[in-house]
Amino acid sequence: MKILFVGSTRGTACSLHYFTSLVRLGHSVLPFDPEYFVARNPIERLMIRSRKAPTPAKVVQVGQSLMRLARENTFDIVFVMAENFLGYQTIEEIRRISRRPPLFLYHSHDNNFSEGICKPKNFEETIRSYDFMFTTKSQNVRRYQELGQTQSHFIPSAYEPTVHHPIIEPYSQFSGEPFEVTFVGTYDKSRDEILDAVGWERLHIWGNGWKHSPNYPAHRERITPSAIYFYEFADVISHSQCALGLLRAEAADLHTQRTFEIPACGALQIAPRTEEILSFFDEDKQIVCYGSLEELRDKTEYFLNHSVQRRKIAQQGHERCVLGKHTYVDRVSQMLAIANEKKLAVAL
Hints:
Elements: E1 2-6, H1 15-24, E2 28-32, H2 42-51, H3 56-72, E3 77-81, H4 88-97, E4 103-108, H5 123-129, E5 132-135, H6 140-146, E6 152-154, E7 179-184, H7 192-198, E8 203-206, H8 216-219, E9 223-224, H9 230-238, E10 240-244, H10 258-264, E11 268-272, H11 275-278, E12 288-290, H12 293-305, H13 307-323, H14 328-347
Parallel strand pairs: 1-2, 1-3, 3-4, 4-5, 5-6, 7-8, 7-10, 8-9, 10-11, 11-12
Helix pairs in contact: 1-14, 3-4, 4-5, 7-12, 10-13
């Protein structure tokens, strides 16, 4: 199939994994990065920051560029990766001018109903314009359907096997004893009590925003206040005895990318107990879960002191992950299968 991929393909963007998966599946994929939030000058930068949205001129420019591509090419699918500012007017105009109207697929691993997610006022109309909506937030399927998008589907997060895998010591930037407990993620106030329960004497943390944590002054030697991605992330997790797979309450997470990335890299994952996580991994066999701060504290202590059981669960979690069809290629294949099923039904 010929696919127009609308989304970032920059090195640290999660959407890059979806793009490369489409290519690996043998499709002809044309990438188009809207760069809605890239400012060309200080005035644009100020407008974007104050509005928390791309400039109107940028939205128009992107729409015109996509319509030009639609006139010059014939696409089977337009795969939109979390680009909320692609409006329904542009989608409908591309359908009108295309020699053979493509199917429009939208996918996001964000919670589009969270206040912190940038989206235009007419986003609900745009939702209805897509042929398919895919989301990693299972609870949002019903909300999309209530807004009139009947083709809404839950597609879980994933891991990328070329990136997320155990890094053996000769190729690691770390040497010596592994980290006891690691967490990789952005600072959020709700995480303070969780990390206090684990114990700062055991922790090592990487992520943006941690200078705002009240724990930073006392524990700065255990905090790297900047994000890490891809191979650096895999290296940290590979060098960890236990890794925390925390969820964000603000996003109403029931699982995240870390749910699969951590076991793929070979560490023992300790995560909040949710039905969704336990649909992927068996508790105390392939993952360790907690339902309270006390349980988190006790289980962290136990598995740090019982290395045989810790390694066994980590190994079984790794095997379940890599054998369970949880890669980005698997997820993209699921989405295309759903789209093709409708396409065949219409043809018949």
